[in-house]
Structure formats: C-alpha cells, structure tokens
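notes to self, project folder thing:

trying the whole complex as one job this time. last attempt i did each chain seperately and stitching them together was a nightmare. three parts in total, labels are on each line so i dont mix them up again. if this works i'll redo the older ones the same way
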Amino acid sequence: MAAFLRSSRFDALFPFLMTAAMIVASAAFYPDILSANYLLQQLQIASFLGVIALGATLVILLGHIDLSVPWTLGGAAIVCTALAGTGHPILSAIAIPAALLFGALVGVINGFGVAVFRIPSMVWTLAVNSILLGVAVLNTGGFNPRGEASSLMSALATGSLLGVPAGFLLWMGLLAVLLWLLRRGGFGAYLSAVGCNEKATYLSGVNTSRVVFGAFMLAGMCSALGGVLLAGYANQAYQSMGDPYLLPTIAAVVIGGTSILGGRGTLIGTVGGVLFITLLSSILSVMQIGEAWRNIVFGTIIISMLLVQTLKSKGTPA
Amino acid sequence: MLELFRANRRECSAAVVLALLLGAYLYTHPRGASTYVLTIWANQCLILALAAMAQFFVVLVRGIDLSVGAIMALTNTFASYVLGGTALGIAAGSVAVIALGTLCGLVNGLIVVYGRIQPIIVTLATGSIFVGIALLLRPTPGGSINYDFADAMTLDVAGIPTAVLIGVALVVVFWLPLRRTGLGRAMYAIGSSEQAAFQSGIAVNRVRLCAFALGGTFAGLAGSYFSHVTTTGDAGIAPNFTLNSIAAVVLGGVALRGGVGTLIGALIGACILKTISSLMFFSGLPPLAQPFIEGMVLAGAIAIGSLGLLRVSDRLLVFSR
Amino acid sequence: MTIDRTGTALIRLQGVSKHYGATAALSEVDFACHAGEVHAVLGENGAGKSTLMKLMAGVIRPSAGEILVDGAPVTLSSPAAALALGIVCMFQELSLVPDLSVRENLLLGAPGTGYGFRNPTDLAAARTTLDAIGGEAIRFATRVADLPLAEQQQVEITKALIRRPRLLILDEATSALNASVVDKVFALIRRQRDEGVAVLFISHRFHEIEALADTLSVFRNGRHIETMRNGEHDYPHLIQLMIGQPLSNLFPVAAPVRPDAPVVLDIERLGWSDRLHAVSLSVRAGQVVGLGGLDGQGQARVMHALFGLLRHTEGTVRLGGEPIAPDSPKAATAEAVGLAWVPEDRKSDGLVLAQSIAENLHLASLGHGSRPDEAVFTRLMERLELTYRELSQPVADLSGGNQQKVSLIKWLALSPRCLLLSDPTRGIDVKTKAQIYRLLADLAASGLAIVLLSTDFEELIHLCDPVHVFYDGRIVDSLSGERLDASNIVAASLNLHATADGPDPVTRHA
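result (full assembly):
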C-alpha cells in the first residue's frame, strides 16, 4: 500500500480524487454543483486550460518552462480571427492551421534559444513573450484585433456532440494524439531522460536538441490551439487574453504530479490538475467569493496540495 | 584596479551599457540633462531596482521568486493606510511596511525550506495569496500617503535625485558590508555549491531562510517606494514587476543557477531595462513599434551573453552543472 | 615511535553500519583512531572508506551503531557539529565553493566566524600554511574555479589545517599533487601528529602510506578486516587483505591476438586544440588496447574525440577501413559506425540515476537502427549476472558494480564493433571487477575491439596489449609483451626513461 501511495500512478490519480472530493464537499452546500449541466459546462471551460497545460507538461518534463504561453495564445487568436474575419473561403479554411503553424513557429524560436544558445528557458521564453506582445501591438495598433471567429472555431469552443462539449472532446483527442506521440520512437522516454540528466542522455546517443525543439514546438501548438478555442468562445481575439492562463497552467501541471524540475510526470495527471483548478475557480465563484478571497484560497490550496505531495513522497521534493 | 574590473566583468560591461543608454536618453529627451528629467528617470528606476534586488537575493541561493510583484502590491496597499498622519506615525508606518515585506519573504522561505518544495511553485502560490490580501486592503486603487514625505523621497537633494542617493546608500551602507560578512559568503556558497557549503559547516537552512527574508524586505521597500512615487495603493501592479525583476537580474549579470552576481548588477540591470523603455518613448520611433523593439533588445541582450557557447570546441562544456 | 593505542581513543566506532536501500556500504564496523597517530585506511574502491570518513565528518548518519568521541557517545548531526568537536575533514570531492575566492573559501565556516564581520581566523596563519605546502603562487583573491585541481587541493588542505583540528581526516587529499608538494604536506602532517592530533588518511599511493602512516587498517566490502602497525605486513599480504584473494586470481588469462585479425579502429595523427598531438594507434578485432598516463594527459580526450564530443579535430579516424568523423554521440553510435563508450563517471554521465533499470537499458537502443529485442537484453542480463529486485526499480538503488553492468548491457545490446571504456571498474567491489574482467576477455575472444583507459596499473598490465602511455597530449611510449610492467608505465607516465635498477615497489596507481 505504501509503495502504491508513493508511485507515480497515484501521483496522477491524486488530483482526480481531490477534484471529486471537492465536488462532493461543495455539493453539500450547493446541490446544483452535482447537476449534469454544471459539470458538463465545467468540462467545456476546462478544455481551454487543458489544451494549453498538455503542451506545458511536455516542456516541464524536460526541466524547462514556457513563459511565452500568454502571447503565443494571443497571437494565434489574432491570426485565426484575422483570417476568418476576411470572409474569404480559402483564408477562413486555413485559419486554424495557420494559427497552429504560428504556435509551432514560436516553439521553434523558443527551442532555438534554449537548445542552441543554452539560454535558461525561463528568461528566453519571457523575452519571446515580450517580442510577441510587441508584434501584436504593432499589428493591431493597440486596439482589440479586428476579425471574428469562423463557424468551425465557434463550434469547437461552444458546441457539443451528443451532449458532450466539443471542446472537451478536442482536449481528449489531443491527449490521445500526444500519448501516441510519446510512445513513438521513444519521444516520451527521451523527455523524461533529458529532464533527469541531459548529459547522460546525450552520451547515450540521443539527439537531445531535437527533443527540446520537439517539446517546445508541441507546447507552442497547444498554446495556439488554446487561443483558437478562446477566440471561438468569445467570437474574437482580445487584448491580453492569454495573461490569465500562464500561472494556472503551471499550477495545473504541478498539481497533476509532474515535478517542476523535470523527469517525472504524466499527461493524465495534468488532466486531473486542470480539472482541479477549473473546479476550484468555478466553485469559488459559485460561492460568490470575491476576487480577493479567491486569490487567497487558490494560493493556499495549491500550497496544501504540494505539501501533501512532499509528505507522500518523503524525500522527493515537488 | 584592473583586477577589480576583471573580477567584476559583467557588472562593468552592464554599467557601460547603462551609461550609453542614459546618455542617449538624455540626448533625445526634449528637456535634456536636467535635474527634473533625471529625477523622474531615477524614481522609475529605483522602483524596479528594488524589485530586482529582492529577486537577486532569492536567485543567489538558487531559487526564483515569482511573488516579488505580489509583495510589492501588498506593501503598497498597506502603505496607503499607514504612511499618513504625524511624523512618528509615518516613521512607525514605514517600519511596519518593511516588516510586512520581510514577513512575506519569511513565509516563502519557511515553505521552501521546511516544506521542501521548489521556490518557483511556492512563490507562485504565495504570490496569489499576497495579491488576495492586497485586494482585501484596496479593492480599487486609492488611499494616500503624506505628500511631504512622498516628496522628500522622490525629489532631489542639491540637484541629485533622492532616488539616486537612496540607491547609492543601499549599495554602500548595506550591500558592500554584507558582502564581507559570514552571511554574505554563506549565501554565495549555498548558491554555488550547496554540498561544499554544507561540508564546510554552514547552516544551509538558516541562511536560505535569511535570503528569502531579505528578498521580502527589498520587495517591501519596492512597494513602499512605489507608494511614494504614485501616492496611492494599487493591488494590480504585481505581474509586471515580477517578470521584469527576473529580466533585470539576468541583464545585470546574475546567474539564474545561483552563486554568481551582485546586488549592484541587479540594480544596473533594472536601470538598463527602464532606460530602454524610456528611450523608446522619446526616441521618435513609432509608438506602436516600441514594445516590439523593446522585446527584441531584451532578447538580443540575453542572447549575446550566450554567444560564446556556440564556438566552444568541447561539446561537453555546454552541459552546465 | 610506538603509539599508545590502549588509552581512550579520540574517536571510536562501535558496531556502526550504513545502508543505502539494499546496499550495505558499511557493516558492523568497530574502529578506533588515537591521538598522536597517523592512521591509514586501505581498501579497494567500494570498500567503504569514504563512507567511513563521511560518518565521522557528520555528513551522513549511521544506520546503526555508535560513535564515541573521547569515550562519550555523540551524535554528529551535521558537519558543523563535527567541526565543533574538532573533527576536520578534507573531502575527496573538495568542499570548496567554485564561485568564491580562495580567501573567502578559507573563511567559510571557519571557527569563530558567524554571520557577521568577525574574522578571528588568522589569515596570516593560512598564508604561512599555504606557502609551506608549495602554494606560494596561489593568490587569495583568485576565484577557486579558476585554479587547477592541484592548487584547489592545496587550498583545501590549508582550509582544513587552519581549523586547528583534533582529528584530521584526509580523503585522497594528495591525488593530484606532485611529489615535492606531497613531501611538504607530509612534513606538515607529521608536525600535527607530533602535537597530538589524530590523522586519518586514505590514499591509493602505497609509497605515501609506507612513508607516513603509523597504523594501517584494511577494509573490504564494507567491513573492517584488520588493523596493524605499519611494517607488520608486506605489500602482497596487504593486497590480499584488501581484495580477499591473491592478486593473480583476479585476472583471467588473456588469449593472444591473431596477428592477421582485421584492424577495426585506426587512428592516424589525431590532434585537437593544444591538448592532443599526432596521436596514432590501431586496434584489431579481439584486441584490448590500453590507454594510460597521469590524469589529464590527453588519453580521456582521445575517447571524447572518437565519440564525437570534440569539434575541429585533425587527423583521420577509420573504423573497419572507412573514415569516420562523428559530430555527436548519436553519429558515433549509429549502426554504420558501431562505437560505444562507457564513461568513467557512471553516476552523472553513464546512467540516468533517477530512472529505472529498464529505462536505462533501453535509452541507447530506442532510436537505434539495430532495434534489439527484449531477448537480447535478457540474455545479456543473465550473462553479466545482473542482480536486481525488479526492472522498474531506480538504478540508483543498485550497487556500483550492478550499475556498471547496466551501463555495459545498454551498449552491448547494440552489438558495437568497438567498445571504449574509461576506468570501468572504478568504485566497484572486487567480485564484480573479476566478472567484468572475464567479460572483457570473452568479448575480445569473440572479435570485439576494445579500448580500455585505466588508472589502475594491474588492469593495464593483465588485460591489455599494447598499452599506450600519454604525456602532455602525446603517446610517449607504447608498451607490450615483456616491456609491459609497472615501472615502465610509471616511467612513461612521468615522461622519464625507465631506470636500470629494477622496478619501484608497490606503486599500483600513479
């Protein structure tokens, strides 16, 4: 039993358990929380953060961090709404692929600084974020970007299939794709190995630069996808739309059992972490708790979760 | 003398860059090199510089503090209540504000050291808590501080901006002595090689706590000074300052892995960052292009520091410890 | 001088054990060291000597047993606690902070310095001590990271001495120092001993131990075997105590290489930066070629060059007749080339310690062209007698010997054409060493070309032919057959001509 509690499988399961506990506990005060309506809506909202967090997990597994999420998201939203807003059928059709390409390109730039120039990822991705902000300002003139979401984008963000939100299906689809990618050619094994010890992995004949590039590109594309969904939801791109997503992304990944130092963690755990954070924010607003207390509760609960993780592993810090 | 320059290469090159930037700024500013312009510049710089100094202490011991801005917000809003009234009240209030900052830093340190959780995540969470408390204090920006007191801190003394004097005083009276104490050495030791520090008999936990507490103190000073400059309390200032403080320390030659860099470097780095954006403002470049150019300059400055690694002929050297 | 070992020992260990998971680094050790004696601790790598020192220095705590200082039980909870009792340790990995200056390192944690300005530690005394051991050229303002290893060791010795120890522990304190500096250090140590300090001393250099020690203790496989006065036993007896069997049993009989065996690896005039000059050597199928010499003379760089870790190399390297120029380990290990390298530091370079055995075994083969299947791994694990609980346990839990086996299996599964090994038996118990030696002999017999870099003379002499000795980036001598013996290796390593008066006794390592 003790061994199971310390295993990584339990690490991934833990946030799901905590989410369920949270739902059940709050339902005592607000029975509506247990309604299918509410829960499905949460799944839809969670998918925005969820898509981004999956990509972030790959980067954090490497022992790096991607702080360019806000403006990769924002930039991708601007790209796809601009293309879709032209009304031109071909341009609208490539709106989403163009946004994803944008995300991949940002990922390549991130990877370049980290893998080739060996700049600490925290600093480099921060700088890239600043540049992307500058590009966006240059492009939009500081106003809200003009453009609108295509019908596909809106459908993905707000529609549903057989009652299940389309966004959630997209999120799970992305999870499946990433899980498959991780198995292919040892990419997943390489991610953890590089996160644990890049030098030894390099000396084992692995092209570690390619692994870093790959992870950042995928993360960029995931952030871009998040931007597409958000733009579809709001039917436009808007200033600083990505800013509120950076810190919750990191929190979700860590609560999901991934070590911030890299080398240890799972995508499934991140799904649990995203659900936890989404439910937490949502329940706090159902309780009509003001922004101030929401911040306080949010921070306190994250620390508590991390302390529990430390106690659980007894020696391996989060 | 030459030895001194060589030993502090990074800070000296940063200082040169700053001097050039400042010269360019004063040249392009319509009111030129006047006390007025310098004072405004120095005030803005000092706020970020204090935030960068806060970040410095945490980075020095191989950590990162994502709550710098949040502590600033909290102490800023707190200051907007207590920095008024009588002179004695103001004095006590000032002490209270700084003590609050120190307490926040201590909380960070305690969780990091005894909870054994990575600083990046701890400060992410505590930052949220601190901002929340700040919002409780000031749901909307408001409050005021004693104007005479604020003026005294933000104007000039015989032509030299008070902010410059404060900065110099901090370096000369606080930093240079600290650097020579056992505590200062111990902090560098922990960041550079925690194992070696431990084996030399250093109380690693206690020193790390001290570094985090100092980080909180300086963040408190930053928030306090911010209230002198703006004379109000605002809970929303956090995100900007946190990320900028990280960029500032890196520009100033502080290594994110710990054990390398000086407070002076952090100060210079912050001034460089602020001067670049001020320079943009008056440079005549199209305003829409300014954030972009600022971002490019930041990226370029960071990349230049790493160019040496590209030419290294022993590939194993890129794997730093 | 006869030491009074009947009185209260300055430090005594009773029934002390230290376990790391399933591995016992020390088992039920009873050991004592007295004031006014120089006590040498001997043992093979992995015998537990460093663990013993770390226990006494307060770096780690015993899993069982008691430590007594001056007859009273103590808990050495940290190095600070040990230092307070006058136990000063000079560690093998050094306790110097790279980014601080010499002066600051000397002051770090010195007695009387707290967090403030007080520096009661007399730096003048430090200067005198440093000068006395040949460190006149070392300036206090220099950053420690900028000093070569030898000078760092001198600073570390000075740092230990100015703490006015009652018990001075030296763990491989002189491994990088040249002979004249070592003499000065010994003079200082003898003065300390005469003033009543107890000195514990680990070294691999027998002539040093002979010259300095009053008492010798032998450890083997984590147990304390015997303590004796210096001179009571001769070198072969000591070796037998240390490895538990006569030296000759350790090494398999090497099969002679067929002179018409194809040349697998051919290096012609390899050069790099100013560290390698015109290095030429070749390895036939079935041959084990040795690389020897003092640390840092270029032999390690040859391995790096072959494995694609160096840019701008000169000269030509041919594998199987075809010229190769790998630009990364990935290129060097590709199926078409077929090189494999087991680095000397298995903890940081050879293995990903935090990951499982299975993950480590497969790391090199995941993207490899040869795609070995599970059966290959299983066969190799049986052949090397890998001992483990389950494949999903972290590799860090295994003993040093088993860790090295994982490293070997990882590469052997790819069927390399040429196997490069750097000090493969460093820090490994004797039984596993013998297994690895047999494995190398078998691999050679089956046609693999092997290059073995070693700092252990016995390995070079018994396993390799020829042995190329490096000095200052060049091969200064290639020894084989009759000429391959300890004294010639020593002579070549020091770039001397071999003396006419026969071999210098008891030098196993440089």
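what i see at first glance: The longest helix of chain A spans residues 208-234.
need to look closer tmrw
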